[in-house]
């Protein structure tokens, strides 16, 4: 029998056993589909968190007041007044620190912005000249806050796109316009580029003013909320973190790191904390996916095993009519491969379709998990092939009459 | 053509040994028409399966066309089952999901006959056994006698030199059974060697030679004149 005929015969066998074929294929389809969907979802949410944090800048160190063990996610440092603008200046001026590039300081608080009849209550950040650079914030129009403006305590402001829309409406160039912040008049000098509304704190709904203006004119404080330091390169992160830590201990007159009234956290620390949650989630989803693949696999096995008796008799008969073992094994293998590949492809289609729809709906990055496709297709096909081929192999070892009598 | 020497077959099932055949020896020449008779359980089917190269004896020799079957490779045996021997099973053994036509075509598929020719030949064979109106029926839409006739058509399609039939008329009414028997007689006249198991004395009388098996032994080997 020629291969093409064996192939045709397999198709016709699969067709005549329609219900059984559909059921075994369904096991494969559901198994593969759900593995791909769930793994993609897990990876997508993890990726989205990573993206958000990486958008902060990749070699960024963050110094915050207070001894916060888990860093960033503990959130607001309000009430912590231990970090001063002088600390930032000292870091910048220090001869001992040779691993860092830029130092930026920030004080932020919420307050009211008014333009004409419109007003909005948002976060206003007082920043130094290096701030925009070190945090990778780019502008669509105008210029960023400069160190000069900080030194001179100028009343200028850079607005986030959401704020512009809230105050001026759409299609208005706000540059040069005057708005009131906390009752004081400020000139708009720039608008930041949208980073998307996702983020730990909405970076589009924010206004930037010079740090000293914020401290002295707007809020009347002498401390700052954060110092951002960029390391010279990614490999120096740990060294920079240590140097910063020891310098600040000294500046704050603390003897040991356990007395520290500040926290230096790196990108890695932040990523770790933030991904901890999502990776638990991903593990959970992957677990469920694995279970569904196993269940799918058991379904295939079960259906295949049920057919063993019937098939063994069929094989005995075929052998008694002159089929060679090779032909028989080829036929059964073809049948199994056709079944599992078809089911596998449908499963991939469904999985990719479902993950695309779900990630789009949840506005997560759609990164189809290719390992999951390969893994689940291979596993399901192997199950199908082994259990499709097994009765053929076993029966081909028997005398035809024994196979015919098999029960 | 066919020669068996001291053929024995012992089945052992969980310590219980059944001697289905004991020291069976005989020879069948080309063109003979042999009937094998004997009570139920006497070993007729067992003998037939060995002659059909479907099973192996526990001991003894089976020489087919001068070659010892014991020494043949699996593929060689498959070839013999396909081309040399047509086997009609006592329990028909049709593939349940295939039509009569496809069942009859099966041996030809393994014999490497082109598909078009297969269909033609299978239709012809089914006509010969009187089933031209049942080409598309699957086995469970057929009566016992019809199934038996499909099985006969299947055994004949490769035009084997030897036809082995295990009670081919066991489920047929007398008139149909006579038709089938005349079919075998005709094949025999055309030079095919026919060995047939039967319980029917009339059929046995038509055969030119009758072997009688009792408890796995040949108790008589009679030539009808
Ligand atoms: N697979 C087997 N395992 C064990 N014993 C078997 C097997 N096949 C047949 N036998 C035994 O061998 C003996 C001969 O069986 P066989 O089928 O050859 O009889 P038979 O002459 O064809 O009978 P019948 O006329 O009823 O068809 C019986 O006693 C039977 O029980
Ligand atoms: Mg019998």
From TrEMBL, chain A:
<dbReference type="GO" id="GO:0005886">
    <property type="term" value="C:plasma membrane"/>
</dbReference>
<keyword id="KW-0812">Transmembrane</keyword>
<feature type="domain" description="ABC3 transporter permease C-terminal">
    <location>
        <begin position="288"/>
        <end position="400"/>
    </location>
</feature>
<feature type="transmembrane region" description="Helical">
    <location>
        <begin position="329"/>
        <end position="358"/>
    </location>
</feature>
<keyword id="KW-0472">Membrane</keyword>
<protein>
    <submittedName>
        <fullName>FtsX-like permease family protein</fullName>
    </submittedName>
</protein>
<dbReference type="Pfam" id="PF12704">
    <property type="entry name" value="MacB_PCD"/>
</dbReference>
<comment type="similarity">
    <text>Belongs to the ABC-4 integral membrane protein family.</text>
</comment>
<keyword id="KW-1003">Cell membrane</keyword>
<dbReference type="Pfam" id="PF02687">
    <property type="entry name" value="FtsX"/>
</dbReference>
<feature type="transmembrane region" description="Helical">
    <location>
        <begin position="21"/>
        <end position="42"/>
    </location>
</feature>
<feature type="transmembrane region" description="Helical">
    <location>
        <begin position="370"/>
        <end position="390"/>
    </location>
</feature>
<feature type="domain" description="MacB-like periplasmic core">
    <location>
        <begin position="21"/>
        <end position="244"/>
    </location>
</feature>
<feature type="transmembrane region" description="Helical">
    <location>
        <begin position="284"/>
        <end position="308"/>
    </location>
</feature>
<dbReference type="InterPro" id="IPR050250">
    <property type="entry name" value="Macrolide_Exporter_MacB"/>
</dbReference>
<dbReference type="InterPro" id="IPR003838">
    <property type="entry name" value="ABC3_permease_C"/>
</dbReference>
<dbReference type="GO" id="GO:0022857">
    <property type="term" value="F:transmembrane transporter activity"/>
</dbReference>
<dbReference type="InterPro" id="IPR025857">
    <property type="entry name" value="MacB_PCD"/>
</dbReference>
<keyword id="KW-1133">Transmembrane helix</keyword>
From TrEMBL, chain B:
<keyword id="KW-0067">ATP-binding</keyword>
<dbReference type="GO" id="GO:0098796">
    <property type="term" value="C:membrane protein complex"/>
</dbReference>
<dbReference type="InterPro" id="IPR017911">
    <property type="entry name" value="MacB-like_ATP-bd"/>
</dbReference>
<dbReference type="InterPro" id="IPR027417">
    <property type="entry name" value="P-loop_NTPase"/>
</dbReference>
<comment type="similarity">
    <text>Belongs to the ABC transporter superfamily.</text>
</comment>
<dbReference type="Pfam" id="PF00005">
    <property type="entry name" value="ABC_tran"/>
</dbReference>
<dbReference type="GO" id="GO:0005524">
    <property type="term" value="F:ATP binding"/>
</dbReference>
<dbReference type="InterPro" id="IPR003439">
    <property type="entry name" value="ABC_transporter-like_ATP-bd"/>
</dbReference>
<protein>
    <submittedName>
        <fullName>ABC transporter ATP-binding protein</fullName>
    </submittedName>
</protein>
<dbReference type="InterPro" id="IPR017871">
    <property type="entry name" value="ABC_transporter-like_CS"/>
</dbReference>
<dbReference type="GO" id="GO:0016887">
    <property type="term" value="F:ATP hydrolysis activity"/>
</dbReference>
<dbReference type="InterPro" id="IPR003593">
    <property type="entry name" value="AAA+_ATPase"/>
</dbReference>
<keyword id="KW-0813">Transport</keyword>
<dbReference type="GO" id="GO:0022857">
    <property type="term" value="F:transmembrane transporter activity"/>
</dbReference>
<feature type="domain" description="ABC transporter">
    <location>
        <begin position="2"/>
        <end position="225"/>
    </location>
</feature>
<keyword id="KW-0547">Nucleotide-binding</keyword>
